[in-house]
Amino acid sequence: GSSSLTLGERICAAFIPLVAVVDFFIFVVANCFYCQPRREKCRYGPSDFTRLANESRFTVNEVEALYQLFKKLSSSLIDDGLIHKEELQLALFQTPYGENLFLDRVFYLFDEKKNGVIEFEEFIHTLDIFHPSAPIEDKIDFAFRLYDLRQTGFIEREEVKQMVVAILMESEMILSDDIIESIIDQTFADADADKDGRIGKEEWKTFVLQHPSLLKTMTLPHLKDITTLFPSFVYYTEVEEL
Amino acid sequence: MAGYLPFDEPSLIGLYKKIWEASFSCPSWFSSGARNLIKRILDPNPVTRITIPEILQDEWFKKGYKPPKFEQDEDVNLDDIDAVFNDSTEHLVTERKEKPVSMNAFELISRSQSFSLDKLFEKQCGSVKPETSFASQCPPNEILSKIEEAAKPLGFNVHKRNYKMKLKGDKSGRKGQLSVATEVFEVAPSLHMVELRKTGGDTLEFHKVTTKPRVYTVGKMSGLDASKREALGSLRFFNLL
Asked: What's the mean pLDDT in B35-49?
């Protein structure tokens, strides 16, 4: 007699290889979508720590400890291994909102690549300047850039006024414009050697060397004990300290 | 000393009963001096119970006792303060003619809390700093008097010279005597900055005495006698300046 397969079975049999091919296509295409580049969370390992330790004044263990701090700060609002401005603001001022002079400048200086986020390398490079053993020239330079609010290459009168007003407001003090002007007059009489109404880099350097307490905020004593403040996981500390 | 607890009972109620009745017995090898002291320590009545200063005076306790020595902070520079106070006594009589040391705008900026990265470490180390500063519109002499007025009832000895003051706690705190150096700076004729630095003793204690106190509830205050209430009230003065 004739073949034992029914017509339906025969049709299915013809289609099965086709279905297999289509199935395969769907699988491949779907996988392609999974392969789309997504922003991978940056992770660092022992070789990065060694490299960053060599590029800075920190030991490998200190870099690891700072990584713990970095991870904490960078995951507070957006967990992407990067510190966003709001996350820095949250860390410094307990709120991610509001305008803040210091925050803007500090964030800008941390963000070496100027891409709107602070990466771990940039974090280490800037904190290096705040290390108690960092050379005073680096601190003087950083302070100058910090106070040069509008990046004109000079610390202008208006910029100093802005900062003084901001600080007095934080102490809930509102002084008359006269008093504030007189404070700045006195400061500029001291600091502005060529009397051009603004403080240049050289004038700043001379001024700071006469008033060393100005650089107090440029040193973070906690960086010396950073490994006790942020004890890191055991397996990272297998990296030999040279 | 004995190798076993003075009050040991399987049930909590039984235990409390023993404590309340001071029902314990010292082993036979205890000296009479030790027995006596322990009896006075384990006194259930807080009024008749021995106090710490009295313990320190006890004959048995004092035998071979070495009082703890607390290290002075290494990195506190006392040169400027010492220089002022070690001057010959002639200067004591002179009128305070000089003005306070002046402070420029950048020094003001650098002392500000909001221009410091220190806060990045705050949570890890409890944010207790051994120094603090605040601004005031009062005249400098008034500022120093107010600090003196507030410090004395808290048990501090005050030494004033020009616009610097040394406050020394007279009772031993957690880490020895708390001492604080104060200086007033002139930012402008009507604006002064007051700096308080811990020069010895416990930082937590320093922090308690010098920063904005928490709100005192009426309940808390009412349990204290008048002099203590006044002293606590004066802790707030740092806000009033």
From this structure: 89
The whole-number pLDDT of residue B66 equals 78
pLDDT mean over B202-210: 79
Contact B182, B196 (CB under 8 A): yes
CA distances from residue A202 to A79, A140, A218, B48 in whole angstroms, order as listed:
42, 10, 18, 71
Interchain contact, A190 vs B105, CB within 8 Å: no
Q: Say if B24 falls within a structural domain.
A: yes
Backbone angles phi, psi at B194, to 5 degrees: -110, 130
Question: What are the beta bridge partners of residue A199?
Answer: A155
pLDDT value of residue B69: 67
pLDDT of residue B90: 44
Contact flag B106-A171 (C-beta cutoff 8 Å) = no
Nearest to A183 among B105, B120, B121 (CB): B105
Burial of A237 (0-12, 13-18, 19+ CB in 10 A): middle
Identify the pLDDT of residue A121.
Answer: 95
Q: What is the ipTM of this complex?
A: 0.75
Distance from CA of A27 to the nearest CA of B (A): 48
Q: Which domain holds residue A113?
A: 7-31+44-230
- State the Cα–Cα distance between residues A163 and A177, nearest whole angstrom: 14
The band of B219, judged by pLDDT with boundaries at 50, 70 and 90, is very low
DSSP state of B162: T
CA distance A40 to chain B (A): 26
The 10s digit of each residue's pLDDT in A138-163 is 999 999 999 999 999 999 999 999 99
Q: Report pLDDT for A10.
A: 78
Assess if residue A237 is contained within a domain: no
Helices (H), chain B: 12-20, 32-41, 52-57, 59-62, 79-85, 90-93, 105-111, 122-125, 140-151, 203-210, 218-222, 226-234, 237-240
| Chain A residues in contact with B105 (beta carbon < 8 A) | 160, 163-164, 183-184, 186-187
**DSSP code for B158:** E
Mark yes or no for CB contact A160/B190 under 8 Å.
no
Q: Which helix (H) or strand (E) holds A51?
A: helix A46-55
Three-class DSSP category at A35:
coil
Listed residue (A71, A88, A231) closest to B120, CA to CA: A88
Residue B133 inside a domain? The answer is: yes
Residue B205 counted as domain residue: yes
What was the pLDDT predicted at A185? Answer: 95
* Under 8 Å between Cβ of A63 and A241: no
Domain range for B190: 99-117+127-211
